[in-house]
């Protein structure tokens, strides 16, 4: 089944204007020409795309489906035109990256900084997401690359190792545990927790580990950013499990300290996920190769 862009553009005009007459003015064509194109599309599809009324038209279920895909076609063409235009002006394109808060807070800023120093013309479109959402975005093509915890299920993606981090316990500087250097997770579950959002890999990990001990976290507050978690810990509203690097950064300006967690799961691995390295745009391939190399 083949479709030409002119016919799809006319279909889009009729669908959005809900009128052959208004679509004809928008497309600068006679109403008869518009009607003929729609009839040809309906013949090709094998089903009516519009229901005709005296004062206009409405999409049929087939028409609704076709509208969704037609818009995707023109959005893709627009992105292609934009990126190819970037090539002609000496810019090499764009990388669409979705990543966890942990990766964005610790490692990716340095990786992106050193990469853009080598390729100053490359643009980045970065979104902060939880692990499962990142996998979905990469799988359905909304992101070129994802960076997420290795524990996150991603069987449909090609993955490679990125970096490792260490989780620690953040407590207020005057907390009863603040003088300790190391604690077991079982010791701290009696305290109220400041937890990350329910879909995050960090929340899933801590609740799973508590369940293995036949315990449950006493979640007092759940927030979506490391900044808020640290501020709430400093306000003596609870303790939190966070990457040690993040705790160390905030400890320079607010009264919190980080305690080492004496648990094997406190060491975490992050990975880069993609649908297929071989089919990635050249810009994304170059960034993946750059991420393979540890930052100096």
UniProtKB/TrEMBL annotation:
SUPFAM superfamilies: Periplasmic binding protein-like II, Winged helix' DNA-binding domain. It holds the Pfam family HTH_1. Keywords: DNA-binding, Transcription, Transcription regulation. The keyword Nucleus does not apply. Residues 3-60 form the HTH lysR-type domain. It comes from the Bacteria. Belongs to the LysR transcriptional regulatory family. This is Transcriptional regulator.
């Amino acid at each position: 089944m083949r479709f030409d862009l002119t016919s799809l553009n006319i279909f889009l005009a009729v669908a959005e204007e809900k009128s052959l007459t208004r679509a004809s003015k928008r497309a600068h064509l006679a109403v008869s020409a518009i009607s003929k194109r729609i009839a040809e599309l309906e013949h090709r599809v094998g089903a009516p795309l519009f229901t005709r009324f005296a004062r206009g038209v409405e999409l049929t279920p087939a028409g609704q489906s076709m509208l969704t895909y037609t818009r995707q076609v023109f959005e893709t063409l627009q992105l292609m035109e934009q990126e190819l235009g970037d090539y002609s002006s000496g810019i090499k394109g764009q990388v669409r990256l979705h990543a966890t808060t942990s990766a964005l807070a610790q490692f990716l800023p340095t990786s992106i900084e050193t990469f853009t120093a080598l390729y100053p013309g490359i643009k980045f479109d970065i979104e902060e997401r939880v692990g499962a959402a990142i996998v979905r975005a990469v799988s359905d093509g909304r992101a070129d690359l994802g960076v997420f915890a290795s524990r996150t299920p991603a069987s449909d993606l090609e993955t490679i190792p990125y970096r490792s981090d260490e989780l620690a316990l953040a407590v207020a500087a005057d907390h009863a545990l603040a003088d300790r250097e190391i604690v077991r997770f079982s010791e701290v579950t009696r305290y109220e927790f400041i937890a990350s959002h329910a879909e995050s890999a960090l929340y899933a990990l801590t609740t799973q580990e508590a369940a293995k001990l036949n315990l449950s976290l006493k979640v007092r507050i759940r927030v979506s950013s490391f900044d808020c978690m640290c501020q709430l810990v400093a306000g003596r509203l609870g303790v939190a499990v966070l990457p040690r690097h993040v705790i160390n950064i905030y400890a320079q300006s607010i009264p919190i300290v980080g305690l080492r967690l004496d648990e094997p799961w406190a060491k975490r691995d992050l990975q880069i996920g993609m649908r297929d390295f071989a089919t990635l745009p050249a810009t994304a391939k170059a960034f993946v190769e750059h991420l393979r190399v540890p930052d100096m």
